[in-house]
Model the fold of this input.
Amino acid sequence: MRIALNIREIDFIGNHSATFLPTESLEYRDRCTLFTVNRGDVLANTISRPEALGVQIANVLRKRIVRGELAPGERMTEEGLAEEFQVSRGPIRDAITQLTSERLVRVTRPRGVFVVGLSSDDIDQLYSLRDALEQLAVSRAMRVTDETRWAATAASVDTMVAAADAGDHEAFLAADLDFHTSLYALADHPRLEAAWRLYLPTFETLLEITVNHDQDLHESANAHVALYELMRSGDTEAAARELRIHLQQAEDRMREELDPS
Done:
């Protein structure tokens, strides 16, 4: 049985105990969490305003696909997803449209929606695409001499270092995304930035997996410090090399996480 619940207090330590209040509809609450309840076991996928429901549902499904929880070829239906997430079909269609544009699912009417997933070649394509985009972003960003425009990048590096010290993976992930996104803003290339944002949801999911792969975040934090310092030094060749190493290591961690054998 699937029901929508409004969380007041929750503790997932031990046997997943939780205190909550039921709500009539996900679409009319400020913050709700969807639970699958089965013989006392509680599994959660958090959905919260102000993000559009379609975006949030796409985020949940994307993580399942990238992690292999939804296998390539697996069939989904709008009706089944609408029932699971306790929403109308509109947000489901929005989520499917987004995931189709990311090539993570394909729609075959009238049979339904099928998971495409991520193959080894897909991983290679995504990281090589990101390398191409980010190399251009870094080379253009390094032309910026206005110190104030680098403030956001510097702040994100400081946040990553602090998050590594605290072992805070969530804060590290947010700062990591801010760091790389800030490089596209510094590049002053709207089309380049638009290309980054098009694939940002997929890159974010990949980054979440690689960040959570590391028990100790200090190595990754130090790599970002090194990249930042090279960019600020003006050594374009060294910065390009460091970025390529940085992304290759991320790809290696991603492959190890998806295929630990």
Q: What stands out?
A: The chain has a mean pLDDT of 82. Residues 120-258 form a domain with the Four Helix Bundle (Hemerythrin (Met), subunit A) fold (CATH 1.20.120.530). DSSP finds nine helices and seven strands in the chain.
